[in-house]
Amino acid sequence: MSDAALISRWRKGSFTSGGVTHETYRRGTGPGVVVVHEIPGITPRVIEFADRVVDSGFTVVMPLLVGEVGREPSGGYMASSMSKVCVSREFTSMALRKTSPIISWLRALAKNLHQELGGKGVGAVGMCFSGGFALGMMLDDTMVAPVLSQPSLPFAFGKARSADLNLSPDDEAVIRRRAEEGCQVLGLRYTGDRLVGTRFDSLRKLLGDKFIAVEFRSEKASDHSVLTEQRQEEGVQRVVDFFREKLQP
């Protein structure tokens, strides 16, 4: 199927909260899942992953935060999207112990989806720069299936940033409480991925046994995108199974 055909099956829309508007793409039936793309944008491989979630019995909404829809990754495109993330006030790409402002918008999107669809709650998966966003979305009890794939914010320059979870102390306390109450978090990464830093250690410390780590051995230094560009089928299936367990009746 061509790249254009991949996205043609999705319904384009938009969502506004707090004066911020982003395009959205929606497809499927069943419980709601928010799929947040990686850098550089909603690539064909991101769409293929989202289609897999849809075909497993879920309503998926993909917001477009940077970049384009359906465009293949390239060096220049990656650099352009990365620069936008670095300068945008929506993302705390370098600051320590701060929650990205985009989390509030994503929480509103997820709550709106749950209000429409009902059910046990909603799920979310973030990747790369958005990898930790599902953790921040746990501030709401409606987020019952958070998935973090190769979380990479704040960008891992130095020991402190490599361990940081992109959360304020107050938000971190709420998420710790939710984990203590039973909310599990699924995390995926390649073991040699330097962009992830030591965040999996931080997640284990914060969440205890409620953090489920799915880790794959790095075969190449470039191994990063577990669910898309360097796709691990086992990882994709673990995500689908997690959503089924937490969201479906």
Provide a descriptive summary of the structure in words:
The structure is a single chain. The chain is of the alpha/beta class. The chain has a single domain (15-247), classed as Alpha/Beta hydrolase fold, catalytic domain (Rossmann fold). 37% of the residues lie in helices and 20% in strands. The radius of gyration is 16 Å and the shape is globular. The relative contact order is 0.15. The model has no long low-confidence stretch (mean pLDDT 96).
Number of domains: 1
Question: Would you identify the CATH architecture?
Answer: 3-Layer(aba) Sandwich
Strand content: 15-25%
DSSP strand tally: 8
Mean model confidence by pLDDT? 96
The CATH superfamily bears the name Alpha/Beta hydrolase fold, catalytic domain
User: What kind of sheet is the major sheet?
Assistant: 8 strands, mixed
- Rg is 16 Å
End-to-end gap: 32 Å
What's the CATH C level? Answer: Alpha Beta
Give the count of helical stretches: 9
Strand order of the largest sheet: 1-2-4-3-5-6-7-8
- Supply the helix-strand structural class: alpha/beta
Shape: globular
